[in-house]
Structure formats: C-alpha cells, structure tokens
Structure prediction request, 414 residues.
Amino acid sequence: MIMPFGSPLSPSAICLGTGSFGSSLPEDRSFAVMDAYAEGGGNFLDTAHIYAAWLENGVGASERTVGAWVKARGMRDRVIIGTKGGHPPLDAMDRGRLGAADLNRDLNESLDRLGMDCVDIYWLHRDDPGCDLDELLETLNGFMADGRIRAFGASNWSVERIAEANARAGANGLKGFTANQPGWSLANRNPDAPQLPGMLSVDGPTRAWHGETQMPLVAYTSQACGYFSADNVAWAQAGHEGPCPHGADFDCPTSRARLRVAAEIGKNKGYLASQVALAYLLHQPFPVYPIIGTGNPGRVQAAMTARVIALSDQELEQLEAAEYGTNTDWHGRLGWLLFAFVRGRTRSELMSHASTSQVYGRSQLSSSVGIPRRWQVSPHDSRRQESPHTEKLLMAALNKENWRGSDKGMRVAL
Prediction:
C-alpha cells in the first residue's frame, strides 16, 4: 500500500496551514480554527521548524501550538502531521542546511515542540543544489529507520531535482520523496512583487510531470493570500478602483481575469469565488491537496466546502484560458493553452498508471505514456474527451529544450 504522507489515514482533500498559530494568532483562536477544521472532516496539518522565527517570541510557536491541540483533543491517531526542516538561516538564505547534523537537530527540536515521537511526513523546506544527494537520502532513510519520520517530501524543489533524487534512491535500494509541496493557486503572481529567495511555484512542465508520475502535490499559497475573497470581488466589480484589498502580490491582468471568471462561476453555482479557486486545484489530473491558511473558523468551514464543487470541462477551461496579461511571455501562454487541451484519460486509467509508479523518479515526459489531463472530480461522469491534434502540439512543444523554462510568469518565488 502506497502511503505518500506516511500515515494509513486517508488525507482530507484540504490541508490546514498553521504558520501563524501561537504567534500572530493566539493559542485559543488557533485551537478554534483547528477544531473547526477537524469538525469539517479535515485531518492533514502542515507546520514547520522555521515558522514565526522572524517574530519576537515566535520561534517554534506553530509546532508547539499544533502539538498542544493534538494532545488536548486526543487526536494523534486521527490526524496526519507534516513538518518541515532544513530551512536556510533567515539572515543567510543562500546557505544550505541539508547536512545530516542540521537536519537531525531540526527534526529533534520539531519533535520536542510537537510533543511527539514521530511525524508522518517530513518536508525539506528548501533545496540546496550543492548538497550530496546520496548522503541526504541516507540521512532521511535513517530517520525513517529509527522511527522519527514515516515518509519525506520536498518543498520548493524542482521536479527535475526530485526525479534525480528518486532515481538515485531507487538505484541504491532506498526510499525516495513521496510528495511535492510548491506554491500554486488559480492566480498568477505579479512579477513586480517582492519575491522571497528559493521558493518555487507550479509551471506547465511541473503540471505535466505530476500528471505522468501521479506524485501528490500539496499546494501552499493556494488561496493567493485572499485574492479571491469577497472584498476583492467587490473591488473588481467596482472597476479595480484603489489598491487591491487582499493578495496584492498576485494582482496582475491574468489574476484579474481569473477572479472575474471564478466569481461568475461561483454566482451561477451558489458558491464563493474563493471556493471555486480551491475547487480548481482539486480538479487536476493528479492528487492535489491545497493548503489553506486563516485565523477565522468560519472561513475554514467555507474553504472545506470546495470539496463538493463539481466543475465542468468548460468551466475549467474558462478559468485557465482567462485573458493573459504581460506577466507571461508568449511561450508560457502557449504552454498553458496546450496543456489545457491535452489528451484526456479516464480516472481509472490514471489510477492504474499511478499504481505502477510507486517510485516517482521519471525526469522526462514519455510520449508512449502520454500526458494525462485533469480528471472530472464529479462522481457522476469521469469520462474524458480526447484531442489528438492538440496532444501532438503539446508533445512537440515539450520536445523543445527551451520550453521547460519559458513560463516565466509561473515559476516565480512566492
């Protein structure tokens, strides 16, 4: 049985981010948010060793608060706990921290804060291209062997690096990465907005790789910092007068167009634009678990509703094809449009392919396998239509070396 998150539990479709818990969000309110999340069927919590370290008295607050809630509610056997380590020093972001000593120290501190002997999935918070992959894999497999972690994943690693690491793990009889955690939302980031170093978001080739390998993707910044909120919808309806109320770093022509389409689809279906934006991520041709972040229990409940929204092929294509602005070049626009019409597969075919790909180690897209398109989440109709002509166009694009890095508007630091 494949357990990409290290737990026999089936992960809830929506993951809860806890970065502000216990620091900017007091413990009692943090508990209320986690209570609402659990009551709504959520069981997948995401934290990190570095969270809130930039705040006075914030070091370790998120992990301690998550651990205290799990203990107080008796939830350890009912939740999946993921934390991250190996983050560079905040004052020296170019210095890697993926050596055995650093990771061992981070993991032990995280477990102490959480009050746990083991975490289900341990994420490497950043990549260090200079690290020795063989030594890194030995270290992580050692953590699994001594029972401190059950699986490990990569956050802010390129899929090329993940594939390389997993190929080495397979060759050496070791476990590899089982999940990927990049940034991804329906909105595009404004390329002029400040960018934190070392953070990666999803681009066209990343989507295609996940479609082929079926490696689960856990998407941070899935709500684009509130860009699809009711306040932003009202702002858009008023002609975008004044500053963007929420998620200004994502404000660009493409995001404005997608906000409009999400609001229209939501209005027709009786949902919020923010719920439609999350549902979009859940309608991909590979497992996607959006991470939500909020300090409001009511908003947690609203976000969880995205699980029941069924989007049609036409609606999904309307969301993706919303007018592109100046934040991508023409190669990137072509890549996304081609991907939107790539040949379909039934959900059963996708799952069958996933069952044969237990080691997510492929670094090249295979024309013999094809690139599966997103499946329809609705239980009423999982059939897909094919578009052989556009598949040929996509494969031709993928065979060009310069295509992989062309979608400049998407592979940015979030």
Remarks:
- The first helix runs from residue 27 to 39.
- The chain has a mean pLDDT of 83.
- The two ends are 34 Å apart (CA to CA).
